[in-house]
Amino acid sequence: MMGFFSKKKHLELPEFWETYANYFKDKLPETISENTFVVLDTETTGFNMTKDRMLCIGALKLRDNTIVVKESFEVYIEQEHYDAESAEIHGILKKSKKERVSELEALQQFLAYAKNHVLVGHHVLFDVGMVNAALKRNGLPQLLNKTLDTGLLYKRTLLISTVLRKKENYSLDELAEKFRISKKDRHTALGDTLITAIAFLAIVEKLKPKNLKDLFKKQNPPKFGL
Amino acid sequence: MKNTISERVADFLKKFPPFNILAEHQLEKLSYEVTIIHKENNSLVFSEKEPPHNYFYVVHKGAVALTKKGSQQMLDICDEGDIFGLRPLLAHENYKLQATAREETILYAIPIQEFKPIALENQQVGDFLIESFASNTRNPYSLKHRGKLYGVPNEAEGNPETKMLDLQPVRYSTNLVTCSKETQIKSLAASMTQRNVGCVLVTQDGLPIGIITNKDLRNKVATGLVSITENAEAIMSSPVITYSKDLTITQAQMALMKSQISHLCLTEDGTTDTPAIGILSKHDVMVALGNNPAVLMRAIKRATDSQRLRTIRHSILNLLQGYLEQNIPMGLVCKIISELNDATIKQVIQICIDQMETPPPVKFTWLAMGSQGRGEQLLTTDQDNAILYEDVPTEQKEETQAYFLQLGKQISTELNLVGFEYCPAEMMASNPLWCHSLEEWKEVTSHWMNNPGPDEILLSSIFFDFNVNYGEKALADELSLHIFENAKKYPQFLTHLASGALQNPSPSGFFRDFLVEQDGEHKDFFDLKLRALMPIIDAARVLILSHSIKSINNTAERYEKLAELEPKNKELYLAASYASKALLKFRTRQGLQHNDSGRYIALDQLNKEEKIKLKRTFKTIKEIQELLQIRFQVKNLLR
Fold first, then answer.
1. Which terms are listed as keywords in the entry (chain B) (predicted)?
2. Hey, of A39, A42, A70, A74, which one would you mutate to test binding to chain B, going by the most B CBs within 10 A of its CB?
3. Does B625 map to a domain?
4. Lowest CB count within 10 Å: A192, B117, B404, B514, which one?
5. Residue B495 shares a structural domain with residue B631
6. Which 3 state secondary structure label does DSSP give B108?
7. Phi–psi pair at B161, nearest 5 degrees
């Protein structure tokens, strides 16, 4: 009897997680303009999901073609694991003066911010993977949000032909050049989210999806018919 | 309060008045409160009589047109850094104009509530606003005054003055060429030639005391009245007529007329007691009025950056609209607009070459393909272009291609800035597949012609309309020659090309109704390009290639040439020439009306007359297609 209870206690999740999970009881709105998109980018110490850590999470909210600057999200995380090489790219030094919080605190803030909104990112699965790895370290389940990848969506805006070789992957730099977005704050998480958000808006305008469901579908390569 | 995004907003705003005079903490605070808004092409920011929003707007990227309801006249275009929609907020009245995005646009919306205290606190900001309202820089009412200043404007002329330039400050030349009154005439004439200016200012202690123009040199020196060894003082006009730098275009025009001179000297405070800061020529005023191709052409050639070229492009589109309203023959309109487009591209290329660290290693040609190559690009559509350069020894190949790819990329980016959209299929010189040496291009085209699959046919049909835009014409001629020789060797290529030309779906269905798109983004629209323009353009290409005629790219002209070459089909070819012009005009009208490429047409918005006109061209298309079918025995091919 006691054993049964203790097991249940073990599974009990913190309140902030429950609040987050509860948002998913609501269905997402159907149209693109009614939906809030959370554009997300993380800066990490490297590309290894288990070894590397997040240095910073940046995010902003996009709703009906609008970004409210003061509603953006930026949190720096205390580091144990530290890789000099990567820190150089991102310019986030371990001892820089930015105020930082624990990984758990960062996750808690991010979940409260993201709610059940669709997460948008350039190669978003990497960022989601990093967040998930951090969640796991803190004994929490995986993110429940749906995702949209600007890398995949961008490819759909290009013409399809066998002779015109399409690249497998397009970097955020290439997108920024294509859509003439300033690359000034490349490699700060929040700066990258702004580039991603503007690229996302331009892509959505090009693809003209009927609704949210259609937009998800467009991430897949098109099917050919005769 | 700030974050990375608000810092970026502040970085942008501080480049433009009145934000450049704000204190750092004020700007920081204001930027944090900004909302970034993305507007699709043709979407409304606010409409006439709408109660004011809580924000005013700054254009971050793109362009916004301000119009008055019921008139197609554009009162103003707001470009990067321009403010609009502020006056109604301060005056507590409804919007008097309609604001629409003219292209994909990003706006910064700045809350008036946050801005007002700053404006009150900061004397300079208040002054800026009062001044800009008073001088009507962005004011709807100046249109009214036009008639009074110039007499009644001629309505039949269309609306070349779509921007209210007459009350905007003039753009003057700050490239001042000066000399002292002791300077020898010979040497001052030499420096005028070298600096490419039409007048030189004679100064003493930095103050203007006289002016010498081309006319003075002609009338006083070339006639032999004054020797070239004499001093500037002998021929200068003095005293100098000076004006303040805040002159508006209207004032400048009045001044030039009043004193019958060709150049005005602008000084700090408008008197000869302050140093000269610029020269304003009659030409500068003409450019500002901008409704004359010759003037636009000169403006293009003088432009030194893409931003300026972009403004000129707006004028070109205005000119085009005026031409269409006046029903000027399409052949002529095509020529003028193509020339202007061509000059714009040339100028962009020249600017880009100058920006490269080293000059091009070998001679090269910039080829325009597709509609631009055919001289049919009236509206700005996609860029289709390629680079062709001289052959180099094997060891320099990589380096040379790298150079031209970088140049291609730079040009392509700048062209985009000017207003030429990127090609969605990446058929641009920045793509390694479209940047080759002569030898490589010969190989590529031979490959297309020897293996004519559907893709190769598509690529050939885009590429074979190439036209030299910039650089060595001889290179392109050699490539053309190669293509014609190859076409003779592989006659089946033409058959395949003809088959490709017949593949586009026909414009009308069984009941002679329009066939509309069944699916996708343009469902129920009529695809004018695919169903009407492409068949007639493709057919012209095959027929002209079969006669080995190079150097005629324009579709209408191709049909005229064909009429000359084949007298027995004269009537059909002339009809086709007419149809191609009519369709192009149709597309351009639609494009200007909807501010897009004009490709897709909503049939329910056409009137009866327009529908009949369109259908008439379909008959010609059908006949031309039948001719192709018989002549090239397309039926023998598996289609």
1. CBS domain
2. A70
3. yes
4. B117
5. yes
6. strand
7. -90, 60
**pLDDT tens-place string over residues B387-425:** 999 999 988 888 999 999 999 999 998 998 888 888 877
Q: Please tell me the distance from the alpha carbon of residue B269 to that of residue B246, in angstroms, as a whole number.
A: 9
Asked if A205's CB is within 8 angstroms of B104's CB, the reply is: yes
d(CA B366, CA B357): 19
CA distance B323 to B589: 11
Number of domains in chain A: 1
**A187: domain CATH number?**
3.30.420.10
Full-prediction pTM beyond 0.80?
no
Residue A222 lies in a domain: no
Backbone angles phi, psi at B606, to 5 degrees: -85, 145
**B97 by DSSP, 3-state: which?**
coil
Return the bridge partners of B184, or none. B231
Please report the number of interchain residue pairs, chain A to chain B, with beta-carbon separation below 8 angstroms: 87
Residue A3 maps to a domain? no
> What are A143-192's pLDDT values in tens digits?
999 999 998 888 888 765 545 555 667 888 888 877 777 766 666 788 88
Total residues found in chain A within this entry: 226
Eight-class DSSP state of B421: B
Residue A14 belongs to some domain of the structure: no
**Can you give the residue range of the structural domain that contains B501?**
491-639
**Which of A66, A177, A189 faces B37 most closely, judged by CB atoms?**
A66
Q: Which residues of A touch B448 (CB under 8 A)?
A: none
Please tell me whether residues B15 and B117 are part of one structural domain: yes
In B96-221 the beta strands, taken as DSSP E runs, fall at 98-101, 105-111, 178-179, 199-204, 207-213
- Asked if the structure places residue A166 within a domain, the reply is yes
Best of B2, B5, B104 to substitute, by most chain A Cβ atoms within 10 angstroms, is B5
* Backbone torsions φ then ψ of B551, nearest 5 degrees: 70, 0
* Token pair 């030429």: residue: B420
Q: Which two tokens stand for residue B402?
A: 């790298």
Asked whether residue B447 is domain-assigned, the answer is no
Which of the four pLDDT bands, split at 50, 70 and 90, describes residue A132?
A: very high
Mark yes or no for CB contact B33/A161 under 8 Å. Answer: no
**pLDDT average per 10 residues of sequence, chain B (639 residues):** 82 84 87 90 87 89 79 70 82 83 88 84 74 48 30 30 48 78 90 84 87 88 88 87 76 74 81 82 70 79 85 81 77 83 91 91 90 77 86 90 92 88 82 90 89 81 84 88 85 83 68 61 76 88 85 88 91 91 85 78 78 82 86 64
ipTM of the complex: 0.83
The first and second tokens of residue B11, run together, are: 């970085």
HSE of A168, CA atoms in CB hemisphere, 13 A: 0
**Long-range CB pairs of B8-12, under 8 A, 24+ apart, other chains included:** B8/A182, B8/A184, B8/A185, B8/A191, B8/A194, B9/A69, B9/B34, B9/B36, B9/B108, B11/A184, B12/B60, B12/B81, B12/B108
Q: Which residues pair with B64 in a beta bridge?
A: B78, B101
